[in-house]
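pasting for ref. prot 1 ->
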Amino acid sequence: MTMLIIDLLFTYIATVAFGVLLNLPHRALNMAGLIGTLSFLAYKLLMMAHSGLVTANLVGAVLIGVLSMQAAKWLKMPVIIFNIPALVPFVPGGQAYQMVKNFALADNTVAFSFLFQVIEIAGAIAFGFLLAELFIRLQQKLLDWLASRRKASDRDIKRY
């Protein structure tokens, strides 16, 4: 439990620090850090539940996408301001390093194993962002439909 809290603390710091490097507006830094930390918490909990690397990255990316779009609406800023810093904990840098190292050492079987991990993680992140966009669009359509139903029922009540 203590390691999880330490991981989350360092995830927040890394996300905010990356946002500073990208020169994000100061009012977006805290929200980007929170989005990164919450999505990394979901990732860690799924990894602890042995759900698999791809599933954990997919859920983390969906959370980043959905939370970033909601934060962008709330703070009236572009979505990418929240997406990019929050994505930092999910970048498969360790696997990419191991892949290149093992290719250089001519250990191709291990290198290909890491290559497939990198491809799976990158694909899960991309598909997670796609699912988040789909979820937000469905949510908006549902809200529009409910608003139109409410207007129609208000007109019917006024008629009587």
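and prot 2 ->
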Amino acid sequence: MPSYTFQCQDCGEFTLFFKTMSGNKEKADCPQCQNESARVFFAPNLSSMSKPLKSQIEKGMEPRRMTRDELGKNSTPIRKKPSISRPWQMGS
């Protein structure tokens, strides 16, 4: 459920929760005074993430390097010659 924070000139900040992310969420009516309010944008709060979660996300960004032994001996696919199903496609 996405949440958006808005700034009312009279009442201050308030947060609204929406069922979908579709539509224009740049402005909303204040729930107290019904004035049109603009959306407030915040940077993501990454500093509050736990270290294990942060390191898992960072590890997921790069593919893990593996040796041929780790992949196994059948890891290299064997390419088969294409079967010729049409006589005019002969060659190569």
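The CA atoms of residues 9 and 50 lie 36 Å apart.
Helices lie at 51-61, 68-71.
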